[in-house]
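wait is this the right file?? whatever heres the structure
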């Protein structure tokens, strides 16, 4: 890739000179757009309105799908709770055991004083 000479010159400038060059580019007036071209806007599409009975049937179908997915979600939550239960029980028992040993250690430390 060949470096543009202007880029090479800018790369050798001090930070202050680069800042001034950048600000000079900003202060130059920009080119204004001309009305040589026309913006084409697509005509609005006609919206097909479905009858009320079709809307109600669609809503009922969507509700059945929602109910099915929600019941599957509840089943998944129950499965997670059943699978995690032994691990949680084990963690609680271990925590109680560590709590008792910590209490014993504190009691022994206080008794030595």
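ok assuming it is, sequence goes like this
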């Amino acid at each position: 890739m060949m470096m543009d000479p202007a880029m090479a010159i800018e790369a050798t400038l001090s930070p202050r000179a680069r800042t001034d060059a950048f600000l000079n580019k900003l202060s130059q007036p920009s080119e204004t757009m001309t009305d040589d071209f026309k913006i084409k806007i697509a005509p609005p599409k006609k919206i097909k309105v479905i009858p009320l009975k079709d809307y109600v049937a669609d809503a009922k179908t969507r509700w059945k799908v929602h109910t099915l997915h929600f019941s599957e979600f509840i089943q998944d939550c129950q499965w997670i709770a059943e699978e995690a239960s032994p691990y949680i029980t084990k963690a609680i028992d271990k925590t109680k055991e560590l709590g008792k040993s910590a209490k014993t250690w504190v009691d022994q430390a206080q008794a030595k004083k």
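Helices lie at 5-12, 15-27, 52-112. so i think its the right one actually
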